[in-house]
């Protein structure tokens, strides 16, 4: 038995293949010499690894690079736009979505549907989702892409290391494992993972958040706050998700902001969700959450309703969003003191409502973190809307599904040789 | 130039030497076969690495192991109690301390002094500390131990990747770098590091917190709350300190608990420190913080004063500690929702006062984290006094100073051959 950290020959080759593929995926097109400089291996070693990745169809040569007239033109390498694709699926409160992303990070197929899943049984929802997954995988087959794994985003807590949704209050789900149904009804190979939507939104920001030149990319330490019906957050430390002992980290919605305040469904008082959650904001804006939900099905419709009223200057809506921003600022002040992130990104509904939340949020956060030690020695915490917005969880899911390929490029059935063998061709 | 993660031959050998030394340090005495099983390398490879560590004097053979009558008795390996020693130093509010710890984790020399350092200039404090460091290194020389590095614990914020104390309000220090003075006045070799005392207390729990059989050891994810004059915390995730973007993570003392409440020195209102910090508790117990400080110099004397009054049933003291526990419970509820640790350990003064703080703290924390998803699916969060108590930061500092040896066993001047060469023997 070999310990996971041991430097076996096989483990070293796997890691070096992953480094080479990762370097081309991040910076391609790039020459072999460029890859060697990036990963810290000799050009000879990189050449061997590149050949293996070319044979497996994960890399392609893009023709000679521009050399500025000096030396022999070297061929440049890029990741393939055929071969493995990550399948991402999202179970939202009121909507389902599926997409496929290739190694270059581009969406190649997509399906979406509005559903009335609040309080509905998981079975029908998952069967509908399986149908959408089959539709997307059929479409990418025509593009010479094969599913390399599936990740499902859910608005709830997922027990660490499992696919079980322990609790998704806004779906009314408790201890639901979507994996067996999806395995039975779709042909997507392992790994099949289930993940909290705020975490996947944060992964999307990490993977896609920068501009073409990398500008605007999230820093390695940030907090990604996400809201649909509830409020969740992802804590990213050194570019990695912090999951917590049980997988329940990031429950910002139940951080106490006014400890003796409004009773919360969780049994406590004064939780952030009672001041900045969807129902609380609708109510404070003079709208009945139940009637708003009926008249504006799907969370995005209700967020649009608030945004339009705020843009039109409706005083009750503006006051509701201002107070929600203040409550967010108090909760985030605690999070900033504990975690010292470089930035706070507002995703999901909060991204859309950021123009009206940010002034009071930043005022409160600055007042509570303008602590003497920080003054003059460090930049103030940056608060901004997430770039991926409401698409974050779905994109993050598709990228998470590609992770297994990037971590172990030749290890699985997504390489043509192995998949032909498996299917008896 | 080689990237830090690259698998060069040199890097692999260094990591494997570290794994072998680490395995013996954690579990020794242990046979070569036991080491091989633990680190996942062949017995031949382990034999070569062990020989190098024996030659360097970092491992010793302890004679034949008991074999239960079967096979050839194999010699067992242990880490040496001579050779490199970690030097830990602590700058407390009112006290200085220095100790030396050998590779076996035992304290081999120690010095301590009470000082009136609150608001004093750094120069005299650091010169006094340098004298104590010289005293300790002289004493361990007679034990055939050589300093392998120095770590200094401070009650304040240290900018990440530097030795600069950005702010230590209870010392009155701002932007003080102790390193140049200590380098000039002591002969301790690099690395010289400066670290927040709550972080080092957490490291001590990680390294020493278990019983002889490992029972009571902290889990990989925990929060270590520490209080002397102020309140700080260390966040440990997967056995590693979470430092934050600027190195300021864990500022639990400024988490808002009653957002409209008492004004704090940091400029905000309702920070935890205003309800559970030393001055706040003394005041609530009917004691004048200034007079208590004069009559009971050193933070431990004031903590003892509170403990004695509480043990004697003094109503005002009991009420003050109960209210402090409630405030701690509110702040920790937020931290638990964000971080999902397995345990909260109370260190420093809080460990001593735990009997009177814990009932209200646990009541508040349970009420705020008894959230539906957790009920019945996960154990309740464990809250306990830290095992190292007030000694944690000093012990953690000494162990941190040994880290460089454990990470790169043959890389530095602590091996006899190299140090003899360096000193011209």
Automatic annotation (TrEMBL), chains A, B:
It holds the Pfam family ROK. InterPro entries: ATPase_NBD, ROK, WH-like_DNA-bd_sf, WH_DNA-bd_sf. Belongs to the ROK (NagC/XylR) family. This is N-acetylglucosamine repressor.
